[in-house]
């Protein structure tokens, strides 16, 4: 019985503190990618420039810094229109979904990850991200219901106290 109670409280704790499986990137990696892009812009082929920009976009949307994430989103959105290759399109959609997820825009992130999964239904990265998005949406809903219930309880308690007087 104690084991069941322990598992119950562990699952509640995990619900509220569970992290996602999306990797984070340090600013050193972002700086390294920025230098790589600058070097590629000087003398590399167009293909090498695109690869360097993709690595920088990846680093930016996985960054711990919100301003980096926003820059990554802007870079990816700007490059999306000129993408004809389905594999590159899927990768950019996935990275955009990660960026919006990091910014807390879960509905936009879910739209993008769904588009990514249309292109490649068994993409494990996208499936993992979709699960993380749904977990956050579910958790936010439970927290919202809890706040609403608490507010109603306080109001009813206040009205009851007023009625007693």
From TrEMBL:
One of its GO terms (biological process) is peroxisome fission. GO terms for cellular component: mitochondrial outer membrane; peroxisomal membrane. The chain crosses the membrane at residues 141-163. Keywords: Membrane, Mitochondrion, Mitochondrion outer membrane, Peroxisome biogenesis, Transmembrane, Transmembrane helix. Gene3D superfamilies: Tetratricopeptide repeat domain. Its main location: mitochondrion. It is a single-pass membrane protein. It is found in: Mitochondrion outer membrane; Peroxisome membrane. InterPro entries: Fis1, Fis1_cytosol, Fis1_TPR_C, Fis1_TPR_N, TPR-like_helical_dom_sf. The keyword Flavoprotein does not apply. It holds the Pfam family Fis1_TPR_C. The C-terminus is necessary for mitochondrial or peroxisomal targeting, while the N-terminus is necessary for mitochondrial or peroxisomal fission. Belongs to the FIS1 family. PANTHER family: MITOCHONDRIAL FISSION 1 PROTEIN, TETRATRICOPEPTIDE REPEAT PROTEIN 11 TPR REPEAT PROTEIN 11. Component of the peroxisomal and mitochondrial division machineries. Plays a role in promoting the fission of mitochondria and peroxisomes. This is Mitochondrial fission 1 protein. The lineage of its organism: Eukaryota, Viridiplantae, Streptophyta, Embryophyta, Tracheophyta.
């Amino acid at each position: 019985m104690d084991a069941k109670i322990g598992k119950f409280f562990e699952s509640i704790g995990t619900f509220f503190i569970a992290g996602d499986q999306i990797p984070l990137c340090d600013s050193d990696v972002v700086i390294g990618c920025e230098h790589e892009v600058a070097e590629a812009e000087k003398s590399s082929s167009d293909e090498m420039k695109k690869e360097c920009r993709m690595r920088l976009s990846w680093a930016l949307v996985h960054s711990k810094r919100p301003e980096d994430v926003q820059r990554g989103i802007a870079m990816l959105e700007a490059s999306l229109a000129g993408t004809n290759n389905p594999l590159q399109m899927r990768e950019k959609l996935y990275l955009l979904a990660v960026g919006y997820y990091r910014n807390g825009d879960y509905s936009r992130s879910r739209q993008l990850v769904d588009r990514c999964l249309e292109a490649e239904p068994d993409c494990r990265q996208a499936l993992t991200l979709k699960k993380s998005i749904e977990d956050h949406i579910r958790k936010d809903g439970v927290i919202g219901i809890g706040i609403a219930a608490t507010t109603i309880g306080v109001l009813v308690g206040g009205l009851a106290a007023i009625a007693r007087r």
